[in-house]
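Question (not urgent): is this output format expected?
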Amino acid sequence: MFKFNYDTIGASLLFAAFFTEFFLILLHRPDKKLVKDIMANLTLGLCVVGFGLFEKSMAYGFYSLVYHISVIKIHPSIWLWIACFFCCDLFYYFYHRLGHKSRIFWAAHVTHHSSRHFNLSLGLRTNFFHLFYRFLFWSPLCFLGFRPEMILIFETITAIQNYLIHTEKVGKLGVLDWIFNTPS
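Got this back:
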């Protein structure tokens, strides 16, 4: 029997959004370079998603180890989940910012910025090398008492949210633009 998990649901949503936007782009008769770029992004994204499944299990093992040695074990509550969401989003911000400010991390992140086109497929255009170290940025959260499962869930949600901001089809989102990373 097929078991649904957050990654399966997230990947399904991402690819549904991708193919919807791709269909809309095709309706406007784009140039061949745009279509080639989108297909290259899709191919690269599929490879990264495949390798990402391995990375998630590696991250879970590492998070579990860090959580096990942590002296802080907070009882799960709605407030802990909310705090974990905002902490994961904040840690993503620092991880992404370091990808722009540090040469070594930029070397893995530059692939994402190497396209001339801005659409959802750009969210798939990533270098798989970052999967080898990315989970280390969230590991301090386990030491602070956040359970590994919580971090993996919010990493997936953050990844979906950051994928969806790569579009010109969404305008300003009001107060959300002040708090979160948005398309505008």
